[in-house]
Amino acid sequence: MSDATFDGANLHITLPSIGTFDAQTNIYSAWKEWIRQSDNAKYPPAFDTTGGDNVGGGQTVAPYFFCRNDLGWRIKMPSQDGEIIVSGNLFPRDPSATLFEQTTGYDAFLRLEVSTRAVVITSDPYADEIESINNKVELIPADLVEILDKVLTNAAGRITRDSQTGRETFYAQDGTTPLFYSDYNDSTGERVITSAS
């Protein structure tokens, strides 16, 4: 796949065709090469990044690429109809501002494929509840302690709450496999935890 092209005067990053693009190779690295040419470094930076830090065990933090849409940069779709897939952790620096622009007269469909390992969902809204459970573990029946231990070990902070039913779903580390459900029991006023399997 060809790399993106850059227009510093108009702050456009143009995808040359429909197809699949790697955020790191075809967009970010192409920009790094572009700024080395001529006097292109005079334009505002198109990207900043984070990631790559060693976290032990032969693992590193996944790289994130932030397009500087807060400085006016936009990614322009090609002059073609069809599907475009951008794989990798590409995000707008300003999530409230536009990042992608269609080319007038063409209908390009964009799909962003973000690494599931790169986005960590924390359980901060539940931190007080988890601490309370940990402090009162002697008051909880042994089978519930086992269930909670599995949840806290495997959920890795991935918890969702259905706003209509109040059901909380605790997921495994893959972020998609439900482990347990927690439902509110109207008659007793207690929460009931059930296994998803």
Order of helices and strands: EEEHEEEEEEEEEHHEEEE
Q: Can you list the strand order of the major beta sheet? A: 1-2-8-11
What structural class is derived from the secondary structure elements? Answer: alpha/beta
Individual helix count:
3
Coarse shape: elongated
Spatial extent as radius of gyration:
23 Å
**Low-confidence runs of at least 5 consecutive residues:** 118-123
Give a written overview of the molecule.
The chain has 197 residues and is of the alpha/beta class. It has helices spanning 23-36, 127-135, 142-154; strands at residues 5-7, 12-14, 19-22, 47-50, 54-56, 59-60, 64-67, 74-76, 82-87, 90-92, 100-101, 108-113, 159-161, 168-171, 178-184, 191-195. It starts with a strand and ends with a strand. The model is unreliable at 118-123 (pLDDT under 50). 18% of the residues lie in helices and 31% in strands. The chain contains three helices and 16 strands. A four-stranded mixed sheet has the order 1-2-8-11, with helices on one face. It has a four-stranded antiparallel sheet with strand order 13-14-15-16, covered by helices on one side. Strands 3-9-12 form a three-stranded parallel sheet.
